[in-house]
Write a structure and sequence with these properties.
463 residues; Fumarase C, Chain B, domain 1; Fumarase C, Chain A, domain 2; Ribonucleotide Reductase Protein R1, domain 1; 3 domains; two-stranded antiparallel sheet; 8 strands
Length: 463
């Protein structure tokens, strides 16, 4: 049996674990929502701590709480920011609407820790109360959307360098493979030649453009409704609180933030979360596509394309000896699917707001933060363990470049599409090369044919 203490909230008494920093309202949420076993992201917990610290500092400066209360709340909130009390944030990610449960979890942890610092017992709230002091001039309805936006901004700061690294990894391979000729493929059929370097350069561009799209979408997260309290009117707040609280939050978080011009809009609309989630979805779709290309290009080794070799990371079969699978490319695709699913959940939550509040914010926060986390971790490993170690099977690539029937495309301006198409049909039927047939049929001089059907010149027609 766990030793407990009794706490009281507006509904009555609740048994709370004796040494827990959380209190009655958190305990009710634990009992009410045994849903997934998933807990709030470290970024969201830290963001709640940042909001509580900023609010306490400003409220103390405005004379709304005492220096003793303000100082203790600030110190306790900083411990939350630093991750010292993550074990006391026990509310499931699937919880009461608007994030009330997690918000009160934060208020109670900070209040109890502040009371400890001031020599008061846990659960007494003798000197610092979770609602009256930690939450002074605040509401879940302005704190949670603020923390949700801030946590996404902070989490994205870890994704951006990973995307920069992956783009650089592809660019490095593009330079390494710049002279490797290969057959292009469209519709999964032979197409005109390209270089392996050109393919990889395009992958790098795709990653960079996805990163730029995420950065653009994230700008909307910087506009905060903190100070709007319950419905965006600022009830129970000091006239100077709103602007000063956002400025202080930006200062201590080290992130550019600004107070929303219309606090009602900032509370009603969560469109910025949909925009960020959509940009993450765009990145995921690009990475699914690229990872599938890597799997195709490395397929084989005996019966596939076998144009590139991905680093061998682990045995690929419990029954087939020597089999090695493209595990990180497979992982990337699966993570991409999850991000697409997360985006669907975010979209449904964003459109579900009613009147002065969107209560579906916990779903938005969980899914956006999970998407950022799994993309960050996956793409870091894809770059480090896979992309940087890719090698090329040059002979295989060049064989395909020289044998593709799509070489006939370069003859169109000289002999016309119909004759070139007939040449392709004969090549497919006989297995003889386009070059060999063109020479045999005297369509052009041997010198012209050699120059026109040189795969290298086809990859850089305007150089």
């Amino acid at each position: 049996m766990v030793d407990t203490r009794k706490e009281k909230d507006s509904l009555g008494e609740v048994e709370v674990p004796l040494n827990a920093l959380y209190g009655a309202q958190t305990m009710r949420a634990v009992e009410n929502f045994p849903i997934s076993g998933l807990r709030a992201s470290r970024f969201l917990i830290g963001a709640l701590g940042l909001v509580k610290r900023a609010a306490a500092e400003v409220n103390q400066e405005l004379g709304l709480i005492t220096p003793e209360q303000g100082g203790a709340i600030v110190r306790a909130a900083q411990e939350v920011i630093d991750g010292q009390h993550d074990g006391d944030f026990v509310v499931d990610v699937f919880q009461a609407g608007a994030g009330v449960s997690l918000h009160m979890n934060a208020n109670e942890v900070i209040a109890n820790r502040a009371n400890q610092m001031l020599g008061a017992g846990l659960g007494t709230y003798a000197k610092v109360h979770p609602n009256d002091h930690v939450n002074y001039g605040q509401s879940t309805n302005d704190v949670f959307p603020t923390a949700m936006r801030l946590s996404a901004l902070l989490a994205l700061e870890e994704l951006y360098p990973v995307l920069d690294g992956l783009a650089e990894g592809f660019a490095g391979k593009a330079e390494e493979f710049r002279g490797v000729l290969k057959a292009g493929r469209t519709h999964m059929q032979d197409a005109v030649p390209i270089t392996l370097g050109q393919e990889f350069a395009a992958y790098g561009v795709a990653v960079r453009k996805s990163s730029e799209a995420i950065r653009r979408a994230a700008e909307g997260l910087r506009e905060l409704g903190l100070g709007g309290s319950a419905v965006g009117t600022g009830l129970n707040t000091h006239p100077a609180y709103r602007v000063r609280a956002v400025a202080r939050l930006a200062e201590i978080a080290g992130v550019e933030l600004r107070a929303a011009d219309d606090l009602r809009w900032a509370m009603q609309s969560c469109a910025c979360m949909a925009e960020v989630s959509g940009a993450l979805r765009g990145l995921a779709l690009e990475m699914v596509r690229i990872s599938n290309d890597l799997r195709l290009l490395s397929s084989g080794p005996s019966t596939g394309f076998n144009e590139i070799h991905l680093p061998s990371l682990q045995p690929g079969s419990s029954i087939m000896p020597g089999k090695v699978n493209p595990v990180l490319a497979e992982l990337t695709a699966m993570v991409g699917f999850q991000v697409v699913g997360n985006d669907a959940a975010v979209a449904m939550a964003v459109q579900a707001g009613q009147l002065e509040l969107n209560v579906m914010m916990p779903t938005m926060a969980h899914n956006v933060l999970q998407s950022i986390m799994i993309l960050t971790n996956t793409l870091r490993e894809l770059d480090r363990r896979c992309v940087r170690g890719i090698t090329v099977h040059r002979e295989r690539c060049e064989y395909y470049a020289g044998s593709t029937v799509a070489l006939a495309t370069a003859l169109n301006p000289y002999i016309g599409y119909a004759k070139a198409a007939a040449l392709v049909k004969e090549s497919v039927a006989t297995g003889r090369s386009i070059v060999e047939l063109a020479q045999e049929q005297r369509l052009l001089s041997d010198a012209q044919i050699a120059a026109i059907l040189d795969p290298k010149t086809m990859t850089e027609p305007h150089s």
